[in-house]
Amino acid sequence: MAGLNFKNRWVLVTGASSGLGRSIAIELASNECANLIISARRTERLKELKNDIEKKYGTEVLIIKSDLSDPKSVKNLFEKSISQRDVYALINNAGVTDFSLSEIEKYEIYEKIIEVNFKALMRLSLLFLDYFKKKNGGAILNITSMGGLFPLVYQNVYCASKHAAQAFTEILYAENENKNITISSFAPGGIVTEMLEYTGLDKKKGSKSIFNHSPEKVAKSAIRSFKKRKLLGIPGVMYSFGLQMKRVLPRKTLLKMLKNSYK
C-alpha cells in the first residue's frame, strides 16, 4: 500500500496552539502542502499560526475553537470540521498532564486529564472512523506517549490515560485492517514545550537533556511515521532501546529506576 499523501488535502490537528501540535501543523503545511483545520482553546494563538502558515506556505487554514475537556465541544469540533471541509486525516494531539504524587485532592485534575487525553481522543477517533468508512478512505493518527508504554512515576493518571489511548488505537487498527483506512499511533518521549515548564519537569530534566527533543524534530518524525502508515511510531533509537530493556527488566526494578529518575 502506498504511503499517505497530504498534498492539497484537509487535515485536522487538535492542540495546535503550541508545542507539538503547532509544529505538526507547520510540518504538514511546509513540507506536505496540506490544508489545515487547527483546533485548541486559545484562539489568538491559532490566529497567529494561521496567518504565519498562509503567508509563508500558501496553504489554507481553518480555525475551530474547542475545549476537549467538554464532551459537547468534542462533538461540535467534529460536526464543524466535516460540514466545512472534506477531511482527509485526523491527528489527535491535544494532551495535558500533572507531575506530582497521586492523591484524592487532585481528583478534578485527573478527570480533566482523562477527558482530554483519552475520552476526547476516543470519541473523535470513532466519529471520524465512521465518517471515513462512508467516504471509503481516511487516516487517523493518535499521539500517545512513551508514558503509554512505560509507567512514569509521579505522572500516574497521565500514564493511565495514555496507556488507554495506546491500547484503544492498536485494537482499532486490528478491527479495521484492510479497510482503506489508516490508523496509527505515535509515542513521543520528552518534548521541550510549555507542558515541560508548567509541570516543573523542566527542573527535573532540562531542555538540554538527552531525554527531551525539540517539537520540530518530533513533528517531522511523527508525520514521517504517519505517512508510512506505521501502527506505532517512536522517535529516536534511545527510546526504542528503552522498550527493549523494559521487556527484560523485572517490573519492580523498572518502577524503581523510573521513580529515582524523577524523584
Structural class: alpha/beta
Q: Which CATH architecture?
A: 3-Layer(aba) Sandwich
Strand content: 15-25%
Number of helices in the DSSP assignment: 10
- Overall CATH class: Alpha Beta
From the N-terminal CA to the C-terminal CA, the straight-line distance is 46 Å
CATH homologous superfamily caption: NAD(P)-binding Rossmann-like Domain
Which sheet architecture does the biggest sheet show?
Answer: 7 strands, parallel
Integer average pLDDT: 89
**Uncertain residue segments:** none
Overall tally of domains: 1
Summarize the topology.
Layout: E1 10-14, H1 19-32, E2 35-40, H2 43-57, E3 61-65, H3 71-84, E4 87-92, H4 107-135, E5 138-143, H5 156-175, E6 181-186, E7 190-191, H6 194-198, H7 201-204, E8 212-213, H8 215-227, E9 232-233, H9 237-248, H10 251-262
Parallel strand pairs: 1-2, 1-4, 2-3, 4-5, 5-6, 6-9, 7-8
Helix pairs in contact: 1-2, 1-8, 3-4, 4-5
